[in-house]
Automatic annotation (TrEMBL), chain A:
Name of the molecule in the record: Amino acid adenylation domain-containing protein
Keywords attached to this entry: Ligase, Phosphopantetheine, Phosphoprotein
Claim: Disulfide bond is one of the keywords in the record: no
Coiled coil: none
UniProtKB/TrEMBL annotation, chain B:
Protein known as: Phosphopantetheine attachment domain protein
InterPro entries: ACP-like_sf, PP-bd_ACP
Source organism per UniProt: Streptomyces tuirus
Carrier domain sequence ranges: 10-69
Domain of life: Bacteria
Matches recorded under SUPFAM superfamilies: ACP-like (SSF47336)
Length: 1420, 85
């Protein structure tokens, strides 16, 4: 057996461990790196022997006897710590209703607990009995210590040792090699030629940094947990898989890889897939016999095309593996750094396929067992884990998903489809599997043949001529009148030579004239093209150049804008002659042309024929159920195709079109009142507007008018949250149709009836195709087929025209339009919109191709390069962000936007323009849009963050050794490595006096971006849930800790006092010496007893407490409460447990900024250890706690003298650690421990010395605010208690307390903040009192005290992103102190009230010590 | 009943997994650099066990040439004296 290395031995981490450590730093409290499995043992197990086997094995495994520490530079070290203190959890669950379920639930809970790598064992074990002869051995270990193979080595050894112990046979050697041998091997490899060769192989293979395809277009950091679906292949299928593998001369793992690649290709259509392949990394290595973490990940490129069969793909995979595997020792993390694929959204590889072929047929004293994986570690995207189970059992496939990216439904869908594809492929290995499957949804036939719109409208004019066709602003026009004027216009057009084949521009605002003009143009035989009369000049010109209308119909008001065009002014009714028209438009005759954003950088005109329009009208009219009686609001401007829906559906039905007035939409309530007044029955609204309306309705601010019976929405994805609000408020009685469709398929292609039964409230379908249309889902992309498709684009634009193409996968290869939209078919058979396949972005109903905006930017003077990306902010707001490289001097962003407004519709003008020195590019020279997408600059450019930015740049340039770093430079582009990011986070945290998480550096990889994030931090997603699970877990007192023996009696001879060197501690010490004759043992952080004693003397001196005459009774002991056994030698700990008669536990690390995990050891765990010490002799424990564990006034009007259940007011780590300590005492009290709890408020200095605690929060606020002349309105009033009084009261009450009593040390009236500030002014300091938020803004940033208090407020409010003046809730309700008053009665111990004189004494002290400058006009 | 294990069948097995001709298999080659992975080695170990040579994955994986594999297999072939692992 190798001897463990000597105590205190520390080593750098192995490269693989460093990868895990880095990942853990991204989210330090994440339990995601806990890996676990359980071994189901089919037979009786002796728990005592099993525990012995576990303990024996763990002493043999070096990698488990470790702690991980960081040095000042943030560099991690592994410290060998043999004899790690741990206990297995042994439980008999046979009485539980579902023992196996209970066991799994226990495991899930254990797995969810984050591990403190510095202080806790990296592993845990449980033996759970689920039936008389069935046991589950659960084995958890942090991935930093062991990988999957390492875990299997340990399991094998445990089985061996257990068996030997049971059989009373020699245990034998473990056969484990040393960690040192693995380290030496790794060092030798890194120095070898092989290393250089391997690096060259990978960097060359990935030089082009291939696009990484996945099943989603989103990316995210791993969550703290993962979703999993497990399925077993039966032995027959597994056999078949193996047989096919053999037939194809590959292994079954190659088949799994091939099928996964094919599946990813089929979903997104990517021509190449890069899989992540965990590799054991042990071939030919000493680590084959060392339980440790050396696992690597290989990126595996697999090209997939439509003709590929399983044979093709598996052969390709096998060849790629043969060429890559020899280089498998080169680290994945290193390759990412080489390729500059670190941080942001840069990826090297996509979904993982993890093959676990380890032989795992463990026997426990002859009993069979089966191994089950519980967690394989964090999941980046999606991971397919394949376990080869014991002989003949078949394969188990566990598909894990990152919950940030997939929900249960998605995961179930992908798992089902992947498995179906696997079965299909092994049944026919030579059939094509690369082809993307096609699902067709058919909208069914039209109710009757589609009739041309003009015929339908003419029929209404003829039969119901007096019915109102259009209303606008009090004017109405009947069908007969409308048709008559339109015919008149048509004749005038004919006289100008307009007829079939021509295109006529219409530049009119919404209104009766516009409707007349549209019908007039159609009646002339021509098609119409709506032109926004208010469009920017150059935009209008671009459209006119492309559309080439024969004529533009406009009004006098707008005619001037069309100089140079042939114009017909509608208002000039006398103009020109009339001629016969020829309106008998053929089905393929042009009805209208509408412009949308084009991917080529220019807008493109979609040509819709009469046949398409007729098909759409017939299908949609039926689907929406429109009736003659309906009054339909005309909401959309004419150049949006929603206007086509509104106008033609209404007029073809014979209903009334009510044109919206411009002022109707000023507010939603106003809009709803107008809808009511105009008796509208059908609303056709842009989804974005409807979102507002649904919200307003849900708040009750305005009701939906009774007359509204149908609402149609469309233009962008509907938010589930708003749909739910609508459902809850409006209910199913009003029809709500969610419509989807590109202009190229005539307005609307699919419709979902959202008012009908809901299957999944979190999921908004876009429904089914309209009658007459079909939808084909090819892979994941939606194609549309049917008579409503556009003729094509005006002026045939080759790349875009290719989107109209025959769909070869369907019989007859019908013409289809490839939408570029990714969809999913739900269980209810309806389509769901998932996102775009390209970078088209939808904003306020506009389709925006970033390239079009880029083209406009590049056309501006001084703009050299431009990249535009769509961003979705955390609140769902969508916006465009431009990144621009310009000549010097830089133009102003506002100026650029102004110029863009002259050429682009306003929705296409980026709301954010950022200047940069160069655009990020991939190695192939393309703009790296992923990198741009993450530069998420928060909306309002609030305070210039120069100072912060500079601080970040300063630290980064030092660490990276670069001289000139611009705020927009990407750290990772400059070569930053993860470890350096961690160092920067640490230093930045120290420098700024606030928390800086490593993950933020990855999410905001530029100084500017990070500074903005820090300015606005924390976003709500970062704020932890009410009480972290660690806290809850820590607040449980183990069953084993119970008082034994009778309560102690008589005067105490030895008293243990912790925290004797703090602010209150010296007073406690002096008081204990005064009122008892006991020896006072004080554990103090120190190296030697002499140093410990010295620290106590200093603490007394600092408080100006004279060294008590009988100081010989003080015993200072070097200790560290954060360590096991309080950092005492075991013998000393045992001795204290034996001799001590009272414990006064006053020590705590007080920090308002630190988080719980960094406080738990010193605060919570110390309390637990003291309880452990107290248990054997039932030693009384008195805990000095804090009123800050109480719920704030908003939660509870009174602070009771009782233990508190968990509450949302426990925000800071300090509060949580003190609450957890109290909770431990509460349980101790319930078990009969003689305990008491003493909650202190603000402890101020003893009046006779006028001492001030400079580290106290309030005093630091005063010390930073007074010199600046401003003080914040923090709270109404609070209790002040002087330290000497507190000490007298605590000691007195502790020695006499009824066990289990809680004392709130607030025996006097609180001091009012207003009085306090008055006195400050009376003392001579002029101060202005201002709200806290304003104070935070106005306080000079230079004040270093202010930095910590300011950061505290940021963290306390949990919402630094809003600019409102919401105050943090610091105030407590009325603090009850009945117990204190009752038990101190007659003792002579009483609390002096705080008054002006006392405050003056404190201020004197501050001036004396330099904490405050003397007041103006007063000498020092 | 699987074929008994001989140097020829050994070469043929390797050739199959390396996509080579049996004669082209270089016995001095390191299995790692030949592009084998743990599943392939596991599969070979299973095959050779069923042919009567009791070898484990770890024993194969820690050796750094095919020649060493053959030496191990020769020692472990059925009939050969069983050495302790």
């Amino acid at each position: 057996m190798p001897m463990p290395e000597p105590h205190g031995d520390r080593h750098p981490l192995l490269a693989a461990q460093e990868g895990i450590w880095t990942g853990q730093q991204l989210d330090p409290h994440s339990p995601a790196y806990n890996t676990a499995e359980y071994v189901h043992i089919h037979g009786a197990v002796d728990p005592t022997v099993f525990e012995k086997a576990l303990r024996h094995t763990i002493t043999e495994v070096e990698a488990l006897n470790v702690r991980f520490t960081t040095d000042q530079d943030g560099r991690p070290w592994q410290v060998q710590a043999p004899g790690v203190d741990w206990n297995p959890h042994v439980a008999d669950l046979t009485d539980a209703p579902d023992p196996h379920g209970a066991a799994l639930a226990w495991m899930a809970q254990d797995l969810a607990r984050p591990v403190d790598l510095e202080h806790e064992p990296v592993f845990g074990h449980a033996l759970l009995r689920t039936a008389p002869d069935e046991f589950l051995w659960y084995h958890r270990v942090h991935h930093i210590a062991l990988d999957g193979f390492g875990l299997s080595l340990v399991a094998r050894r445990v089985a061996q040792v257990y068996t030997a112990l049971v059989e009373d046979a020699p245990l034998g050697e473990s056969g484990f090699g040393t960690l040192e041998s693995v380290r030496r091997e790794e060092a030798a490899y890194r120095a070898s030629d092989r290393f250089a060769k391997d690096r060259a192989y990978w960097t060359e293979r990935f030089a082009d940094r291939p696009a990484v395809a996945s099943l989603t277009t989103e990316q995210a950091l791993p969550d703290r947990t993962f979703l999993r679906r497990v399925v077993d292949l039966d032995p027959g299928e597994t056999e078949r898989l193996r047989a096919v593998a053999q037939e194809l001369s590959v292994t079954w793992s190659d088949l799994m890889l091939a099928v996964t690649a094919a599946y990813i290709h089929r979903v997104g259509g990517a021509p190449e897939v890069v899989l992540s392949l965990p590799a054991m990394g042990r071939l030919g290595s000493v680590s084959l016999r060392v339980p440790c973490m050396v696992r690597n990940i290989l990126p595996l490129r697999v090209a997939v095309n439509e003709q590929d069969s399983l044979r093709d793909l598996a052969t390709r995979v096998a060849a790629e593996l043969r060429s890559g595997l020899p280089h498998q020792r080169y680290r994945y993390e290193e390759l990412r750094r080489d390729l500059k694929l670190v941080g942001g959204k840069r990826r090297l590889s996509g979904p993982g396929v993890n093959i676990m072929p380890f032989e795992y047929d463990l026997r426990f004293a002859g009993h069979r067992s089966t191994v089950h994986n519980v967690s394989a570690g964090p999941v980046d995207d999606l991971a397919v884990n394949v376990y080869d189970r014991a002989e003949g059992a078949g394969l188990r496939i566990a598909v894990d998903a990152n919950p940030h990216l997939y929900d249960e439904t998605d995961l179930a869908f992908h798992q089902r489809e992947l498995l179906a594809l696997l079965r299909e492929a092994i049944d026919a290995p030579d059939h094509v599997i690369g082809r993307r499957p096609v699902t067709v949804l058919d909208g069914g036939p039209l109710p009757q043949p589609a009739r041309p719109v003009l015929n339908l409208i003419a029929a209404h004019a003829a039969r119901r001529g007096s019915a109102t066709a259009v209303e606008h602003d009090g004017r109405t026009i009947t069908y007969a009148e409308l048709f008559g004027s339109a015919r008149g216009l048509a004749r005038r057009l004919a006289a100008r030579g307009i007829g079939q084949g021509a295109l006529v521009g219409i530049a009119l605002p919404r209104g009766i004239d516009a409707v007349t003009a549209i019908l007039g143009v159609l009646l002339s035989g021509a098609g119409y093209c709506p032109l926004d009369p208010d469009a920017p000049e150059s935009r209008r010109q671009t459209l006119l150049d492309s559309a080439r209308p024969a004529l533009v119909i406009t009004s006098d008001a707008h005619a001037a804008r069309f100089a140079g065009q042939s114009v017909l002014r509608l208002d000039a009714s006398d103009e020109g002659a009339q001629a016969r028209t020829d309106p008998s438009a053929a089905a393929d005759g042009l009805a209208y042309v509408l412009y949308t954003s084009g991917s080529t950088g220019r807008p493109k005109g979609v040509e819709i024929s009469h046949g398409s329009l007729a098909t759409f009208v017939a299908g949609a009219t039926q689907r929406y159920g429109l009736r003659r009686e309906d009054r339909v609001l005309q909401f959309a401007p004419l150049h949006f195709d929603a206007s086509v829906e509104e106008i033609f559906l209404t007029l073809c039905t014979g209903a009334t079109l009510v044109v919206r007035g411009d002022d109707m939409t000023e507010s939603v309530p106003r809009f709803l009142r107008a809808v009511d007044r105009l008796r509208i029955s059908v609303l056709d609204l842009p989804t974005a507007y409807w979102h507002e309306m649904a919200y307003t309705l849900s708040t009750g601010a305005a009701p939906l008018p009774d007359g509204v019976r149908t609402v149609i929405i469309g233009g962008e994805a509907a938010l589930p949250e708003r749909v739910n609000r609508w459902r809850n408020t409006v209910g199913p009685s009003v029809q709500l149709f969610n419509s989807y469709g590109p202009t190229e398929a005539t307005v609307v292609a699919t419709v979902a009836a959202l008012h009908e039964a809901v299957t999944d409230p979190g999921d908004v379908p876009i429904g089914l195709p309209l009658p007459g249309m079909r939808a084909a889902v090819v892979g994941g992309e939606l194609h549309l087929i049917g008579d409503a498709l556009a003729r094509g684009y005006r002026g045939a634009d080759a790349p875009d025209d290719a989107r109209f193409a025959p769909l070869a996968q369907l019989p007859g290869s019908p013409r289809s339009f490839r939408t570029g939209d990714l969809v999913r078919l739900g269980a209810d058979g309806q389509l769901r919109f998932l996102g775009r396949a390209d970078d088209e972005f939808k904003i306020s109903g506009h389709r925006v191709h970033p390239s079009e905006v880029e083209a406009a930017l590049l056309a501006l003077p001084h703009v050299r390069e431009a990249a535009v990306v769509g961003q979705v902010l955390p609140d769902g707001t969508r916006r465009l962000a431009a990144h621009v490289v310009t000549d010097d001097p830089r133009p102003a962003a506002a100026g650029l936007r102004e110029k863009l407004r002259a050429v682009l519709p306003s929705a296409m003008v980026p709301s954010s323009v950022r200047f940069t020195d160069r655009l990020p590019r991939t190695s192939t020279g393309k703009i790296d849009r992923n990198a741009l997408g993450v530069v998420a600059d928060e909306a309002a450019p609030a305070e210039p963050a120069d100072g912060l930015e500079q601080a970040i740049i300063h630290i980064w340039s030092r660490i990276l050794g670069v001289e000139h770093m611009a705020p927009e430079d990407d750290f990772f582009d400059l070569g930053a490595q993860s470890l350096q990011a961690i160092q920067v986070a640490n230093r930045l945290g120290v420098e700024l006096g606030r928390e800086v998480r490593v993950a933020w550096l990855f999410e905001h990889p530029t100084a500017a971006g990070l500074a903005r994030h820090l300015e606005h931090r924390p976003d709500p997603a970062d704020t932890p849930p009410a009480l972290p699970e660690t806290v809850v877990a820590d607040a449980r007192l183990e069953d084993g800790i119970r008082p034994a023996g009778p309560p102690l009696s008589g005067a105490p001879r030895t008293i243990l006092l912790t925290g004797a060197t703090g602010f209150v501690g010296p007073h406690l010490l002096a008081e204990l010496l005064r009122v008892t004759d006991a020896e006072i043992v004080c554990p103090v952080r120190a190296a030697t007893p002499a140093e410990a004693a010295d620290r106590i003397r200093q603490a007394l001196a600092r408080q100006e407490i004279p060294l008590p005459a009988d100081h010989g009774r003080i015993t200072a002991v070097p200790a560290d409460l954060a360590r096991p056994e309080l950092g005492l030698a075991p013998s000393r700990f045992a001795e204290l447990a034996d001799t001590c008669d009272v414990i006064v536990h006053n020590a705590a690390t007080v920090s308002i900024m630190r988080d719980y995990t960094s406080l738990r050891a010193a605060n919570t765990e110390a309390t637990r250890r003291l309880l452990r010490m107290a248990a054997p002799r039932s030693i009384p424990i008195h805990l000095v706690s804090t009123l800050s564990v109480a719920p704030p006034r908003t939660l509870s009007p009174e602070v009771a003298e009782a233990f508190f259940p968990p509450h949302p007011g426990l925000v800071s780590g300090y509060q949580q650690s003190k609450w957890a300590s109290e909770r431990l005492l509460e349980q101790a009290a319930e078990r009969g421990f003689p305990v008491s709890v003493h909650r202190l408020g603000r402890v101020v200095g003893a009046p006779d010395t006028g001492q001030v605690n400079g580290r106290d929060f309030l005093w630091s606020v005063l010390a930073s605010g007074i010199p600046a002349g401003i003080l914040p309105l923090l709270f109404e009033a609070e209790v002040w208690t002087p330290a000497d009084y507190v000490a007298r009261a605590v000691v007195r009450l502790s020695l006499s307390a009824e066990p289990g009593t809680v004392y709130n040390h607030a025996p006097v009236a609180p001091i009012r903040l207003a009085d306090l500030y008055d006195w400050v002014e009376e003392y001579g300091y002029p101060v202005k009192r201002i709200p806290l938020a304003q104070w935070r803004r106005e306080l000079p940033r230079s004040a270093d005290v202010a930095a910590t208090t300011g950061a505290f407020f940021d963290s306390f409010t949990g919402d630094g992103t809003t600019e409102d003046d919401s105050e943090p809730e610091l105030a407590l309700g009325h603090v009850r102190a009945d117990n204190v008053l009752r038990d101190l009665e007659g003792t002579g111990v009483s609390c002096p009230p705080a008054d002006r004189a006392l405050l003056f004494r404190y201020l004197d002290h501050c001036v004396r010590t330099g904490m405050l400058p003397p007041p103006p006009g007063r000498g020092a | 009943m699987p074929e008994p294990l001989t140097l020829d069948t050994f070469r043929a097995d390797l050739a199959e997994f390396l996509h080579q001709q049996p004669d082209d298999v270089d016995l001095d080659e390191n299995p790692l650099y030949a592009g084998l992975d743990s599943l392939r080695i596991t599969t070979l170990a299973e095959r050779w066990r069923s042919a009567g040579a009791d070898v484990s994955f770890v024993e194969l994986a820690e050796r750094t040439s095919f020649a060493e594999w053959w030496q191990l297999l020769s020692e472990r072939r059925a009939g050969a004296a069983h050495a302790d692992a």
